Protein: FAD-dependent oxidoreductase 2 FAD-binding domain-containing protein
Organism: Bradyrhizobium lablabi
Amino acid sequence: MADDADVIVVGGGLSGLVAATEIADAGKRVIVVEQEGEQSLGGQAFWSFGGLFLVDSPEQRRLGIKDSFELALQDWMGSAGFDRDEDLWPRRWAQAYVAFAAGEKRGWLRAMGHRIFPVVGWAERGGYDAMSHGNSVPRFHVTWGTGPGVVAPFERRAREAQARGVLSFKFRHRVDALSITGGTVDGITGSILEPDNVARGKSSSRKIIGGFSLRAQAVIIASGGIGGNHELVRQNWPKRLGDAPKNMISGVPEHVDGRMIGITEEAGARLINRDRMWHYVEGLRNWSPIWPRHGIRILPGPSSMWFDAHGKRLPSPLYPGSDTLGQLHYIMSTGYDYSWFVLTQSIIKKEFALSGSEQNPDLTGKSWLMTARRATNKGAPAPVEAFKRHGADFVVRDNLADLVTGMNALAGDNLLKLDDLKAQIEARDREIANPYVKDAQVMNIHNARKYIGDRLIRTAKPHRILDSTHGPLIAVKLNILTRKTLGGFETDLDARVFGSDGNIMPGLYAAGEAAGFGGGGMHGYRSLEGTFLGGCLFSGRNAGRAAAKAVG
């Protein structure tokens, strides 16, 4: 029986699009199978802030940032903490990816029309020693156009390949099984779901109206992670982070459920590091949700004071923007799954950004005028102000006593004591009088403002929290927000999947989050941020090129 294509790609997200376009450009026939409708092409990348990890870029050099492959690799390895036998391939992928980020990544994207916002962000700043977690320098390059700007070059390439007749899409086709003949993966079978024109991100119908079977010489799994499936997140939750949260909100739509990961594992693929995951602790319940339990992450600057549910300030160096998993571990150790930011209007105006393409209409819409207003407006960016007005997790008051009363009412636990919070805030405020201090968070603020990018648009001028001229006071209840799977299918550098017996499964490849962004977990335990989209790009490219070469 003739093959339907040379290669089948399961998943129409970023890694799947990258793999498919590389296959098509090699002159091979490729089918992209996607359970959602055409309106969801691009997957989770579309919703992203579009941050990309680049090393020694022209944008960095223009801002006076001195970066190098060696420094970036030092940071990566210090963050990853590889310590398992199965970390052989993840470690190799990490080294290869950092070299890609320091080499051809920017030029490869730029040749396709991709552009970068000129101010480089500083994510995951760490605060330990030079060999531990964190970015030593700013490396978070925001795509001009955010997530849609990342997807657009590959969607354009895919449409061009579709017009040439070498690429075809099968939307609303849900894979139920891999077909294996003589030990080689050679196709897929599944169900056809009824058409559903629901908006991107909304939960779509699961009514089955038929079945399908497709054959090819190779199959690439690019089906994403498990962040929309809270049951699976809890099932894989690592004990090192404490008990799984009772309450979580979702940073991804409901269909990001890990179903295809289970199907592929049942077919014999080796899944490793499934207990490594990346969830944010600065999640807000979306006041205008698109998908169930829809949450948005705050991308905070360094100045907000951070308190646990009991009203105790988080210890050094667990300040905003420093160490996501360190913060998660600490918060879960308190016996509660939420925490608090306390800040001023001056801080929220300059330091709050919200992750997501839909929360950044200036950058997403490529409007320089709107973007410039971030630095000049009297208020915070419009989406932030909307959350402040309508969001269920915000308390805004003119004095601390009323603020604490509102915080206790919102949490319903009555754990916060006015005198305790007041003493901690006043102690911090006394440190603001001098440019040299002992409070490590205030040191961190001074350090941030030495970088021109932070001083211009991301870090408020140091001031006393209880200074009424910078008010009103704001408290934000922070929720655990599910997001990324750091483990995945073990693959070699050609993205070929290993079987449970330790041997390569002929015909099977994996890319993107399903492969732990490369190798089964190239991040190790922690991310440096800006690395998830880049991992999809790199692993999708490797998978597509290797599969195209292998099918002859």
